[in-house]
Amino acid sequence: MALAATHALAFAVEAWLVWAVGRWGFGLGGAPVAGWALALACGAAAITLWGRFAAPRSVRRLRGGALLSFKIAAFAAGAAATLQTYGAIPAAGYLILSLAQL
Hints:
Helix content is 84%, strand content 0%. The chain has helices spanning 2-28, 32-53, 64-86, 88-101.
C-alpha cells in the first residue's frame, strides 16, 4: 500500500512539473499561437529531459547524487513555474510534495 502511494505521489509530482512548465511557457507568448507553441516546447523539453535522465527505465538514467541533483533542479523549476503562474501557496505546496517524494 505504501509503495502504491509513493508511486502515485511521484506520478502526480512529475505530471504537475510538465503542466506547470507548459503553463508558464504559454504565459510567455503574447499571441495565442505563440503561447501554445511555447507551452508545447516547454512541456516537451521537460518530458524529454525527465525521460532521458530520470525515468526508471531510461538507458541513460543518472545515478546517485547526479540523479538526486537533477530531480531537485527539475522540481525547483516546477516550483518556480508554479510560483510565476499560480502564486506562492500552490508553489510551496508543490515544493513540499516534491521534496517529500524524493
